[in-house]
Amino acid sequence: MSKRLLAVLVLLAGLLSGCGYNTFQTGDEAIKSAWSEVLNQYQRRADLIPNLVSTVQGYAAHEKDVLTQVTQARAQVGSIQATPDLVNNPEAFAKFQQAQAGLSSALSRLLVVAENYPQLKADAAFRDLQAQLEGTENRITVARNRYIKAVEGYNVSVRTFPNNLTAMVFGYTVKPNFTVENEKAISVAPRVDFSKPGAAGGTPAPKSQPAAGN
């Protein structure tokens, strides 16, 4: 009986391996790893924001709208529970992506405002924070691309024959991926209106406005 059982188990293992089961396991782990790195880099960006806002506020306290938008966008991102299950929920994933895109847009407006304050730009702390933020944005791009590739490979496996038969049996479905739909707005630089009267000392106080179509 034990030999017969062992033979059955070997046969089943061979069938599962040949029909894509192991591919799904490998792909799923790759997605989890890539997703963890995406979250890690997004968290790194979020951790930089309080100091960045505080530094800008020290030189441009009257830019309340922009500072508030960044703070609120960060809070919105923090309110979303980015658990591993999120990558299996298209609706929750879309909300997460939209919140991150909103934060990216708010940060873009903040940096545009900062460009018009020479003393702020000369501040060593601000320059360091800006450099860290730029580095983090690059890391986010790399991490997102790796996640996109991991999900692409997994989804192809789920949808192609004969793996799709195994997917139906075990309940594997395609996973949501990053898109550019919610990030079109941040691809266009915001306009800066210099018509607002300057602050004390003669420094122009720009007013950031979203570009047309945002």
Helix content: 55-70%
Q: What percentage of amino acids are in beta strands?
A: under 5%
The major beta sheet can be summarized as:
2 strands, antiparallel
Domain module count: 1
β-strand number: 2
Q: Which sequence of SSEs, written as H and E, runs from N to C? A: HHHHHHHEE
Overall pLDDT = 81
SS-derived structural category:
mainly alpha
CATH topology: de novo design (two linked rop proteins)
Q: Given the structure, what is the number of helices?
A: 7
Adjacency order of strands in the biggest sheet: 1-2
Ranges with pLDDT <50 over ≥5 residues? 5-11, 184-214
Could you explain how this protein is built, in words?
- It is a single chain.
- This protein has 214 residues and is mostly helical.
- It has a single domain, classed as LemA-like domain (de novo design (two linked rop proteins)), CATH 1.20.1440.20.
- The chain has seven helices and two strands.
- The chain has a two-stranded antiparallel ribbon.
- Helix 2 (21-59) runs antiparallel to helix 6 (124-159) and helix 3 runs antiparallel to helix 4 (90-114).
- The longest helix is centred in the first third of the chain and has 39 residues, at 21-59.
- The radius of gyration is 24 Å and the shape is elongated.
- The termini are far apart.
- Mean pLDDT is 81; it is low at 5-11 and 184-214.
